[in-house]
Design goal:
The chain is mainly α. Helix content is 68%, strand content 2%. Strand 2 and strand 3 form a beta hairpin.
Amino acid sequence: MMPLTPIAMPASSPLLSRKGWAAFLVALIVVCAVAPVLNLWVPPGSVFHLSDYGVGLLGRIMCYAICALAMDLIWGFTGILSLGHGLFFALGGYVMGMYLMRQIGTDGNYKSNLPDFMVFLDWKELPWHWTFSDSFIATLFLIVAVPGIVAFVFGYFAFRSRIKGVYFSIITQAMTFAAMLLFFRNETGFGGNNGFTDFKRILNIPIATQEMRMTLFVMTGVTLLGFFLLARWLIGAKFGRVLQAVRDAENRVMFSGYNPLGYKLTIWTISAMMCGVAGALYVPQVGIINPSEMSPANSIEIAIWAAVGGRATLVGPILGAFIVSGAKSWLTVAYPEFWLYFLGALFIGVTLFLPNGVVGLVKRLSSSASTKSGDHT
């Protein structure tokens, strides 16, 4: 009887290459040192000054980039297109908004401990789901737990029922739309169509100061970089290899002895939690949260960021969020009537001509350049 030859398992790759770590450290220095110096200490008249508007814009785009990164984990690496991630983003934002509304205290228009919209609606006490909204520690927990629980329950029944493809995308969009209609109702205790606004402070620290805006900017940047490392670790591990196998041939994964349900449910829940954190960081920087954040268009836009940057690359969706959101900020001011046409044309163009996104185009161009250089030598 022939002896069995041991099968060598693939060696685990490093979290980042040497160039990758160098780029990561540069990004960390820019977020934690360069940007604060340019905003807080460089005079406003200087060409190197980073304006408060620029800080707010970049902070919001970094929140979007976290959502795009979360979308890449579930779509790019697992092959599940979600059109409902805007819901998880909004849930995290609402949890933070509830805390910020409690921080207003008696500084509101009605000088009441209840939020102004509750006084206007003649509410006498806080509803049960506002119980822990005055605790910052509880808020930090709920920012992750609420989107995570909603995603887990929804994903469990959807994945157990073997719903996939366009059907899964449709029901995620329907879930988001239903939640938006629910939050529009005044009796739910979430501010109706106006949502939450007029925030005053965080941890009793005034929110409308240059220092607080920069603090939120740095926190957002560090969170984005931290989630990027987490995503790299997940994808580089055995867990990530199974996810990609599920994406490419789920039936073969099942025949190999793996149950795709646990893997898909885990990455789906992690992705939702990431969006919840992004929403919580977004709300104090823009100063408002309302049900429009749950609109199906917002969820579709998250998918567009991932597609434009390049799916299954991690870096690509982050880049896509900056490209699309930056273009949106300019076009909605310069040509507001053409923005939606541009967005639709961009998505169609990327789908037809750049299936691997901007990152794929850059790789193709660099490969062609190196090939020509080799032929020349």
